[in-house]
């Protein structure tokens, strides 16, 4: 190798080494930041778990602690005092979440697919109609009268499913994602004789798995955490979802505690109010935490891939 060639290769090696060091430094900083964020996310959850197993008097005297100073399962004993009611509430919530997520996700994807089709003549008008509903609504009273008086959905599972079936924001996100799918796929399928519904089911939906997983998680979380619709429309105890059942239990516990404090008749009884709240948090969030890892690999891709068109 000549001297000129050695001199030419030396700066390139130096630049490559510098880039390698920069990448390594960036990775180290990234891992440190992610670790700190993970600790900040994990510590509150650990505090909830610890507090749910703490004695009520210990929480009142010492506050919430990462390590319980007085271990107690009284909160879980109160929470599962009537296990058949808890299991029934779980069953209602699981059924509503499963049905609502599947149907809502299918309708969201189908609506987004139609709105992103450039050959759909009225797509701008329908898009404006959907967007308009995010700015203005009829209000609570007309909506309540429509559900009760005209649709006759009171004390039915449908009243827990239909009001949350479609979300305009999810439609917009899904539409953005499907717009990044090449039109050549649809055109080639039409040349082969495939209809619109077949194209949607066999081509578009498999390509939209990341967006479907992401939007599906959001829809499922909405159904799982919903208690307001049950508060308005459910009076049958057999149809109470989990969140509303826990809400009523906590309300009854608070009412009992206030009545005891005002009357002063019972002094030695301590109701596990604070520890019960933490136990309820674990019971309500446990299934969602278990389901999240299965769709985690789609989550980031579903949020980012539709934002940039290639």
UniProtKB/TrEMBL annotation:
Protein topology in the membrane: Multi-pass membrane protein
Family matches, as CDD domains: TM_PBP2
Pfam family, one: BPD_transp_1
Keyword Cytoplasm: no
Localization annotation: Cell membrane
Membrane-spanning parts: 23-47, 89-114, 126-145, 157-178, 199-221
Domain ABC transmembrane type-1: 90-284
Broad class of where this protein is predominantly found: membrane
SUPFAM superfamilies, sorted: MetI-like (SSF161098)
Alphabetized UniProt keyword annotations: Cell membrane, Membrane, Transmembrane, Transmembrane helix, Transport
Highest taxon, organism lineage: Bacteria
Similarity comment text for this entry: Belongs to the binding-protein-dependent transport system permease family.
Record's protein name: Carbohydrate ABC transporter permease
């Amino acid at each position: 190798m000549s001297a000129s060639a050695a001199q030419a290769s030396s700066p390139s090696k130096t630049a490559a080494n510098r880039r390698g060091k920069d990448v390594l430094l960036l990775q180290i900083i990234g891992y440190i930041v992610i670790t700190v964020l993970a600790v900040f996310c994990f510590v509150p959850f650990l505090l909830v778990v610890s507090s749910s197993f703490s004695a009520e008097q210990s929480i009142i005297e010492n506050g919430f602690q990462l390590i319980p100073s007085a271990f107690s399962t009284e909160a879980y004993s109160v929470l599962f005092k009537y296990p058949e009611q808890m299991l029934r509430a779980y069953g209602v919530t699981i059924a509503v979440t499963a049905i609502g997520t599947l149907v809502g996700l299918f309708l969201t994807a189908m609506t987004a697919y139609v709105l992103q089709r450039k050959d759909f003549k009225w797509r701008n008008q329908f898009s404006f109609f959907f967007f308009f509903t995010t700015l203005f609504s009829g209000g609570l009273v007309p909506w309540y009268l429509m559900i009760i008086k005209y649709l006759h959905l009171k004390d039915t599972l449908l009243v827990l499913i239909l009001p949350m079936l479609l979300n305009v924001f999810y439609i917009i996100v899904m539409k953005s994602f499907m717009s990044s799918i090449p039109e050549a796929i649809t055109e080639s399928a039409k040349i082969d004789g495939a209809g619109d519904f077949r194209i949607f089911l066999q081509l578009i939906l498999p390509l939209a798995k990341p967006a479907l997983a992401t939007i599906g998680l959001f829809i499922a979380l909405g159904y799982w955490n919903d208690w307001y619709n049950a508060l308005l429309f459910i009076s049958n105890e057999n149809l109470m979802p989990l969140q509303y059942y826990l809400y009523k239990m906590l309300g009854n516990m608070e009412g009992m505690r206030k009545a005891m404090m005002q009357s002063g008749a019972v002094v030695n009884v301590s109701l596990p109010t604070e520890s019960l709240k933490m136990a309820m948090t674990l019971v309500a969030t446990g299934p969602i935490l278990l389901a999240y890892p299965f769709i985690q690999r789609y989550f980031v891709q579903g949020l980012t891939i539709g934002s940039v068109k290639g």
